[in-house]
Amino acid sequence: MRNFVPDLEKLEKLHTAPNFHAHDSEYDSTPASTAPVSRSVSYIDLDHLRALNAPRSATNPLALRYEPYNYFDEEDSNEEIADFTPLPTHVDLEAFLVSFDGPKDPLSPLNWPLSKKIYTTFVYSLCTFGPQMSSSIYGSVASNISTRFDVPLLISLLGVTLFLIGIGLGPMLFAPISELYGRKLGVIVPLFFSAVFALGCGFSQNFATLLVCRFFQGLFGGAPVANTGGVLGDIWKPRTRGLALVGYSFVVTGGPASAPLMGAAFGTLGIDIGWRWTQYFSAIYMFVVFLLAQFTVSETYHPLLLTWKARELRKETGDARFHSRLEELDVTFKKIITKHLMRPFAMLMKPIVFLLSFYGSFVYGVLYLAIVAVPIAFKDVRSWSSVISTLPTLAIVLGVSVGAVGNIASALHYGKVLTKSGGEPVPEERLVAMKVGSVLMPIGLFIFGWTAAPEYPWIAPTIGLVLVAAGFTTIFQGCLNYLIDAFPRFAASVTAATTFTRSITAAGFPILGRVMFSGLGVNWGATIIALVAVLLIPIPFIFYMYGKQIRERTAAPPL
């Protein structure tokens, strides 16, 4: 068992608490309401706690005999306790640990009205859509950028690559912040800065400035992509979370799929002004959503809500012992760097997270590969116009919708599973639709690749795109649902870990796709990717059968 620890250093600037009367070995139990108070009380008395914990001596009669106070569960027994100092057992802070008032407490986001949950999910999905749209809207005007700055077309695609690298690194920074300071700070504030850098892209006068701004636009834009998963874990119970994630995954996949058509339309405005308006439009969208989210949605992170509740109790009762679990953490800059910011990387070291993140990374890369392949297959091969050749990307949106139907059916199935398990999450049952999707994706790739030639009707490769997108959607959500259920306390960090791997992997796919499909042809390029997808089919089946045993051997990361 682990010893309880209040960190005294973090209390340096806090106010004095109610008076404690020192006796030989006992604590004065005078109620806080009648005990003398030297000043207005809001927090814990630092000086008195130091006196209690100091060595007992003639000059320090306040020091009390104490025994270690067991606070953490057995599962935390392997964690280090260097951050903490002992507290007398006489000061039973466990009794003053603030929590929700039962399972029906309206303060808990899990008990919010359905309309508020839906609205919160909708707004955070809008936050996610902005960066996802920005990731691919650039690709449609890459040729314009190539002409404007006199760089090769492949080099101009670095704007997509650097954006995706940024969107992969961003969650590793902002997800732990959201688990310390709340979801709004971890989502909405970074979204604002992503919009600022989108404006910087639009006003860029040289290619280097454009690339730098694209990277930072992605870095800050990665926060909503990762942390929205944590928000959904805050407000939706396992029985209904799958349905909520359907909408979220639709946004994540629909954003990149719908943006190329918008980009191509802006591209018709002119070689220089068209690509700039893709960035202006992204910035305007994100600024509007930022204002909407900032002023209309509430904080959802449970530990932060309980911290606010504890502060109110301290003010109302004058008893400084009321506290939240979050306030017990030793939050220093060093800890943020070495512990909290490293947590997503630590999560990747776990077999479950690594394998599912790898699979999710591959299918996410295939999504961007398909977006690159569409104009090659329909503009270069079939000689369609620039705007018309992007219309088949709407088949990806249709495929996402088909996959969403499968995910809804999977969520309804999971609700029945929860009823049988007495409400205990069974993450493996989240993989039912994913098993189907793992088969659909390679089938769709084969159809798309071998029907792209002009002698086949345009509907044939379009059907292939629908199957690819449907497979992607079920695989993507299956991975996300499984990991959130397996690690609910660290939903934002585990989502950040998966976002990091899939974005870093997808970063090379736009350039890879251009080289592969132009050099090998659409048919053989798609075949190579399909064969890799075939090799990955066993992953959801293996985790469905043996996932429970693997999870039982996987320890949770340190708090």
Describe the structure.
- By secondary structure, the protein is an all-alpha fold.
- The protein has helices at residues 46-53, 114-137, 142-149, 153-156, 158-181, 183-202, 207-235, 238-267, 273-296, 302-317, 333-340, 343-348, 351-381, 393-420, 432-450, 459-486, 491-507, 509-520, 522-535, 538-552.
- It is globular and about 75 Å long.
- 50% of the residues are buried.
State the shape. globular
What level of helicity do the residues show?
Answer: 55-70%
Mean pLDDT: 77
Counted by DSSP, the helix tally is 20
Cα Rg: 27 Å
The fraction of residues assigned to DSSP E strands is: under 5%
Low-confidence stretches: 1-90
How is the topology of this model organized?
Layout: H1 46-53, H2 114-137, H3 142-149, H4 153-156, H5 158-181, H6 183-202, H7 207-235, H8 238-267, H9 273-296, H10 302-317, H11 333-340, H12 343-348, H13 351-381, H14 393-420, H15 432-450, H16 459-486, H17 491-507, H18 509-520, H19 522-535, H20 538-552
